[in-house]
Structure formats: structure tokens, C-alpha cells
User: Fold this.
Amino acid sequence: MNINPVSIRNMKHTDYEVMAQWLSTKEVLEFYGDVNSPFTLQQVKNKYEPRVNGDIPVIPYIVELDKTPIGFMQQYKLKEEKQKEFGYPKSLTVYGIDQFIGYPNIFNKGIGTEMIRIFIKNISHHKDVDIIILDPAVTNLRAIRCYEKCGFRKLKKINNKTNWLMEYRINHR
Assistant:
């Protein structure tokens, strides 16, 4: 029996306030933003409303634990120039993902691992995708361990060696 019923749903306009709360948390901003620049509600709306509306090709999601919002995820198809920069041929379909848990008191409880596994399954089931990538800060050891548990592997350091490019290869049968 799963003691942590984790689910992922599309982000809605009503989620901006909780996002602003999360994006004002030092532990979240340490690796997702800038610790010295917490997000205002208006900044969250400016950044995420076009995504929620489908105006840009980045799809935002809210992670829930027992139906309570606890985190954020997003997916996007890599642009051709970024795919080339990372060394992937045009023949592959590569998606990037980003995510965080909004409440530090639930870090290190396996929730991140569960949400990543669910997300991988959803993306690989609903999209024609060959590879999923992410790029944690090299200092974000907790996230890197989580991603490795989920099957991601480190490829190379990017962004002046401040981030790992990590990939998960979809096994097409």
C-alpha cells in the first residue's frame, strides 16, 4: 500500500498563490531561482500564466500529496539548437523537465522520487519521446541522488560546470 499518495495535475490559475509562497522559500530558491529574489504573486502570474494558458510550449503541473499541493513540475520539448548543443541528433525527441517540492519539511521522504517516477511514466506514455533530461546544480546532491534513483545518469557538466546534464533514456519496445 502506498502511504504517500502522490499525484500530478495540470497547473491552474488558482495555483499562483501557493507558487508565490513556494518561490519565496529559501530552500526552494537555493536551487530553483535566486535566494535573494523571492517571487511576488505578480511575478508568478507573469511567468506561469502564459504556460497555464498554453501560450508557450512549457506545460506546468502541480504535485499533490493526499490532494494537497506540495510541489511543481514542468515539461518542454527541447529546442533544436539546445538539442544540438547537448549533442543529441535531430532524429531523437528530447524533453526537459524541472521540478521542486515546495515544503522543506517534506524533503528526504521519498516524495521527490515518487513524483519523478510518475512524471517519467506519464511523459513516456503520452508523448513520442526518446530521452528526458534535467540539469540540477552540481551542489544539489539531494536532487541528484533522487534522479539517479529514478534512472537518470550524469552525462556532463554544463553552464560553466555549475549544472549536471542528466538523462533518462526511454526504452521503446
